[in-house]
Design a protein that fits this description.
heterodimer; A: mainly alpha; two-stranded antiparallel sheet; 16 helices; 4 strands; 60% helix; 2% strand; elongated; B: mainly alpha; 3 helices
């Protein structure tokens, strides 16, 4: 199945190349095709999410009213969605599927620019004394021509690649990484490094756009740090990646900048815009939580926080660990107030418990999930 | 809790932190990541992880939506 996906991408690239005749622009075009497919989903998904966030207080009421009765809750929720014209369009799967596109492209690029030689034949000839052993070329010798996989031998891309040992475009070998280029000379590596700078710049612009949407000034420092560090990961990663993949990163970043600008313009302009109403609903829900007295013994205030959120109830199984990591909890709660399109909204989290193992929990809030158990907040990727 | 389960929880927490800036794309309540945390905590790395994966695979534009918590027992979820 995976090979089918690689074939698909490689053949689309071959088709684009047959029109464009430039490796760099063909990769650019392929990126645009990928983004064209995903953009409507992103747009509609954002819209429905903001709609749901705006109606969060009501959604929460429904969940509280019918806790424990799964069927009734679902029925009411669906009725509510219908009445308010909410149609959840997106989903997590489309997003998860998008993530490995870079990996697919990486494999496709590697496959297209693989160098497989007739080592076996040469070795046989050497063994029989026909040629000297020294003349046997290594399989990955950069002087060998490419042997593209995934694409048809009749395609223009195959013909062009198999006739060369460099995937040259814009003065760059699309199959070479910046780190490898640096081993030649700095001068040789400059165009590769410029590509990486472009990834960094487009990433920073994107991050600024998203940060600019959070009109409230207070954002938790930990979250702020992650936001600031995010645009650095990709350029660092790009160092070891073939230039063709770096082109994909740049083009997709640029596309997303445009997409974010459109979403900001569409949903976050004006006091009564969907995005801003969603922020207001969310903030209101949190203020309500704050003013509520502790409903049961399960709720513990978080101590030692200096940003004013300490009095908020920390609910859930992990409450003890939350109390321990007061910084994380307080900071996170603050963030919940200030970040409009956040996934960790109270209505989301509270119902986790309902109708299940802890029916006696208070109806409101919250963020137990968000605080890593060790309290350091650095989620590890496996 | 087993080491793989703890690692998986850390992974999901990390995901939530990194993507906290944007709206959740999820069509269910609780969201897939919260569901995953709950499933792994309650049913362990293997069953919980599988339940989370199954949940993600049914979170697409042509499936249902709404209230969908982690089932009480493994059997009913997987």
């Amino acid at each position: 199945m995976l090979n089918g996906i690689f074939d698909l991408f490689a053949n689309v690239l071959a088709l684009l190349y047959s029109w464009i005749h430039s490796y760099g622009f063909a990769i650019t075009a392929l990126t645009i095709v990928v983004m064209l497919v995903t953009t409507p989903l992103t747009y509609k998904g954002t819209k429905s999410m903001l709609q749901m966030q705006r109606l969060q207080p009501q959604l929460k009421q429904i969940q509280t009213r019918h806790k424990g009765d799964r069927e009734k809750m679902n029925e009411e929720l669906l009725k509510f969605y219908k009445a308010n014209n909410i149609n959840p369009v997106g989903g997590c799967l489309p997003l998860v599927i998008q993530m490995p596109v870079f990996f697919i492209l990486f494999r496709v690029l590697r496959g297209l620019t693989g160098r497989v030689t007739n080592v076996g034949l040469q070795a046989g000839l050497a063994a029989s004394g026909a040629v000297s052993a020294q003349s046997i070329p290594k399989a990955d010798d950069p002087l060998n021509n490419f042997r593209p996989s995934y694409i048809s031998r009749d395609s223009q891309l195959y013909r062009d690649l198999s006739g060369t040992n460099r995937m040259k475009s814009w003065g760059i070998d699309m199959a070479e990484s910046a780190s490898k280029a640096l081993t030649h000379s700095i001068g040789h590596a400059i165009p590769y490094l410029l590509l990486i700078v472009a990834v960094l710049v487009t990433g920073v612009v994107q991050q600024r756009q998203i940060a600019g949407r959070n009109t409230s000034a207070q954002i938790n420092p930990q979250q702020q740090m992650i936001m600031k560090l995010m645009p650095i990961f990709l350029p660092v990663f790009s160092f070891a990646m073939p230039a063709g993949l770096v082109v994909y990163f740049i083009v997709s970043n640029l596309w997303r900048v445009g997409q974010q600008a459109f979403i900001t313009h569409k949903f976050y302009t004006g006091e009564h815009s969907l995005g801003n109403l969603a922020v207001a609903a969310r903030t209101a829900a949190l203020v309500e939580v704050e003013s509520e007295p502790e409903p049961t013994e399960k709720v513990k205030p978080v101590k030692g926080d200096n940003n004013g959120d300490a009095a908020k109830p920390a609910v859930g199984r992990n409450r003890s660990t939350m109390a321990r990591s007061s910084k994380g909890v307080g900071g996170r709660l603050r963030e919940l107030e200030t970040k409009p399109p956040d996934r960790k909204k109270p209505a989301d989290r509270k119902p986790d418990k309902k109708g299940s193992s802890e029916p006696a929990e208070p109806p409101k809030f919250t963020s137990r999930r968000v605080t890593p158990k060790s309290g350091d907040g650095k989620g590890k990727r496996k | 809790m087993s080491l793989p389960a703890r690692a998986m929880l850390r992974f999901v927490h990390g995901y939530q932190h990194v993507f906290a800036y944007r709206a959740s794309p999820c069509r269910y309540l609780p969201t897939c990541s919260n569901y995953a945390l709950d499933a792994i905590e309650r049913h362990g790395a293997a069953s919980g992880g599988l339940m989370a994966l199954r949940r993600i695979t049914r979170c697409h534009p042509w499936s249902a939506s709404g209230w969908d918590p982690v089932p009480e027992r493994k059997a009913s979820g997987c």
